[in-house]
Design brief:
By secondary structure, the chain is of the alpha/beta class. Helix content is about 50%, strand content about 20%. It has one domain: Response regulator (Rossmann fold, 3-Layer(aba) Sandwich), CATH 3.40.50.2300. The termini are close together.
Length: about 120
């Protein structure tokens, strides 16, 4: 299974990448919404994990563009400002079954949502 991580904080993206690679997922990262869109087109992930607030396109704008190619793409939003985006995130959850995590989050929280979105078994592809 392939996962794309988009976060303008390179340290956070790298930590998430390591967690997922240890579990056997193929992972690539991007530093903002524009790079994330290009990475999506090249990598064709099964799951997108994206920050909301980023330079250029924010996470919501990015996912709107990605959903033009794949309306059912699995998505996990991450943000340090949950209260600011709560209603928008609830709408994303209802409309697209998107999930979200508040920064900082525990490894177990992340892995639980990844497993929920991709199934329990890790498949190397």
């Amino acid at each position: 299974m392939k996962i794309l991580i988009i976060d303008d904080n390179a340290e956070i993206a790298s930590i998430i990448q390591k967690f997922l690679e240890i579990e056997g997922y193929r992972v690539t990262t991007a530093r903002d919404g524009n790079d994330g869109y290009s990475a999506y087109l090249d990598f064709k992930p099964d799951l997108v994990i994206t920050d909301i607030q980023m330079p250029g396109k924010n996470g919501f704008q990015l996912m709107k563009e990605i959903r033009m190619h794949d309306p059912k793409i699995k998505t996990i939003y991450i943000t340090g400002h949950m209260n600011q985006f709560q209603s928008r995130l609830e709408d994303e959850k209802e409309r697209y079954q998107a999930d979200f995590l508040a920064k900082p989050f525990a490894r177990e929280e992340l892995m639980s949502l990844v497993s929920k979105n991709l199934g329990q078994g890790v498949a190397l592809s």
